[in-house]
Amino acid sequence: LPVEKVYSYNPVPKQLDASKAKFIEGAQGSLWTEYIGNPSKVEYMIFPRMSALREVVWSPNEAKYWKGFEKRLQVQFKRYDLWKANYSKAYFDISASLFPTQNFDCVSWKLESKYPNAQIETRNGLNKSALRLSKFVKYNGAINVNKTSVYESRLFSNGKQLGNSLFQNFYFNKATGKKVSITATPSSKYPGQGGAFSLVNGVYSQKGLSYPDWLGWVGDDMEATIDLGKTTSFDSVRVHTVDQNGSWIYLPQYVEVLTSNDGNNFTSVGKSSTFVADTLTMGWINVTTPKQSARFIKVVAKNYGMIPDGKPGAGNKAWLFADEIQIF
Fold it and tell me: Which residues 6+ apart lie within 8 Å of 183 measured at CB?
């Protein structure tokens, strides 16, 4: 849990009135260590979460104030350093968000830090080898990314790097940065970091479902329409998806590609159900079509439907996940 989430915890459920709330005597933060092999990892897992929980349970709810705690947390970090504790530095992580540009011709990458008086620096290259040879420059606002590349950003204060570097790979294709709409609203639990734009923002998960870019539907199909801006040639469309049946997540029955030049009348040009994994549970369904041209491309991933007997989640609607559509 992020330290902000821990600090927002209230051990007294809001459903309890005062006559019952008095029976809540405290709270407990448990760390299960069956998969933790050394004290250093224990320290990493509890600091600074323990500091946040301590204030939550020792202070009246009305006295809690995140901004005040945040200032005092800076002193606490110095204590951790004096103790030589292996504390988590996730507080210093740079947060990144992606947006379409006004002309839908590239991707706007915005970086932010909640740490006061610190400077963000970035560098980029076509690949990691080129990245290591490039120099860091001061971040002065959202960066427009227009080609396949890898970026590194870091946070500096008083000549010292705070936290870890943030790396981001961008994979450009003919759909990247384009205007996109979806028919069915995804689950509120998995809305995508940028809504429908998450499907064409040039990035896809390599870390499983913890990555915030995923869109997830329960029982519904994914139907996305991409406006390429002008008539464009292509012969391949693919969707990045998840096959994780133990979590009730099933591959779509198929992915179908339809084209149009007016955005209203669509013609099917190909369909596929072949899944090619790139990790244990994630991969691509690729639809190959005859070489052709169109301005609008509709991509439909047909939900697996009701889960049958004998399979995990039997009797329930299946989850369908997608986080990127690529067109070549």
Answer: 221, 223, 224
Q: Which of 198, 203, 184, 200 is nearest to 297 (CA)?
A: 200
**Amino acid symbol at 326:** Q
pLDDT single digits (tens) 145-159: 999 999 999 999 888
**Calpha distance 260→231 (Å, rounded):** 9
Is the separation of the CB atoms in 10 and 48 below 8 Å?
no
185 sits in which H/E element? none
Query: What predicted TM-score, i.e. pTM, was given to this entire model?
Result: 0.85
CB 249 within 8 A of CB 242: yes
Residues forming beta bridges with residue 122, ordered by sequence position: 137, 153
Rounded to the nearest 10 degrees, the angle between the axes of helix 66-83 and helix 49-58 is 130
Q: Beta partners for 152? A: 123, 167
Q: From CA 223, how far away is CA 123, in angstroms rounded?
A: 36
pLDDT per residue as tens digits for the range 24-67: 988 999 999 998 999 999 999 999 999 999 999 998 888 889 99
Beta strands at 222-242 and 319-327: parallel, antiparallel or unpaired: antiparallel
